[in-house]
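Reviewers of the previous submission asked for a worked example of the structure-prediction workflow described in the proposal, so we include one complete record here. The input consisted solely of the amino acid sequence. No template or homolog information was supplied to the procedure at any stage.
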Amino acid sequence: MRHTSRGSAREGTAGALTPNGDPVLTARFAVPSVPETFIRKTRLADRLTRALAGPGRLVLVNGPAGAGKTLLVADWAGTPPLPGRVVWLTAESGDNAPGIFWAYVLEALRHHGLTLPDGIAGPARPGEVDDSLLSQLGLRLVIISRTEPLLPLHRYRTAGEVAEIRDADLAFLPEETAELASRHGMALSDEGARALTERTGGWAAGLRLCILAAQGADDPESFLKEFETGQSAVADFLLAEVLQAQSAVSQDLLLRTSICERIHPGLANSLTGRDDAALVLSELRRANALVEPLGHSWYRLHPLFRRDSACPPEHQVPRAGARTARHGLPMAERCRAAHGGPAARRRRGGLGVRGGPAR
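From that input alone, the workflow returned the following structure tokens.
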């Protein structure tokens, strides 16, 4: 959140209460600290600066858990020069109660030493927010979120009023992976850094957890090549931050399709015995649950989420002899058929899958 006016530090914050009478938690106004091992992605920090110095008023930083969204913006906010004063607010689900969110917005501005125009009051409900209020505050927003906010983004994109940093932008490049390993006291060859980046999809949390697991090995690079994520902290993170955050229906679909390199709604319906996979996959993509669209209704799960590598046995769907609900073919064989394996030409007609992923 950017604002350019000035005022006395923390004016109005001490003892402030929310509309429901609770004290304002000033800890939510603190910019998160950045660890020494953080890798600054200048390409993304520069994009943030350009976006906030331009005509647009919104930057959306959107990606899955552990992608490095918050640290990217926190590092940018603490690295001058900046296009204006930075005001940080960590939003919470309780802010949806009437008047709470805007009470925190206004107190965050005061906390960071900004003088508000006379007559400014916090709207109680979203419908009470008008353009004049936003104009008076002079805000430019950076929204950090795992999911797409419920805003008319299509309209903002058409008008050129929003800049976006997505999960693909946040992903580490091989040279950044090598630097991250170096920050942890580990030297990786160019090939080792490339292979680790490919295996993790450049996912920041996956990279760091893999590197931490390899630190005690005699040969870290060989360890990383043979590393099984299913019995590691990587699996714990995936389960806690990604899988368990989803509905039971989404969890079942993710687990049953995790043996496949690529997923199509028809294939997912076949593997799960459901008929709503298209909707579930679309919701998972919007939630950034490590599901990547490939085009033509095809999706790909994050490489670390493959069942045999990322899910401990107690969370796996039994594989031996597993068969699809409708067609009686073993799951793994049907995945191979859908991906163009030896049986593809013989069986593709029975999959209910048309076309293929965009290359």
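DSSP finds 17 helices and seven strands in the chain. We consider this example representative of the routine output the project will generate in years two and three.
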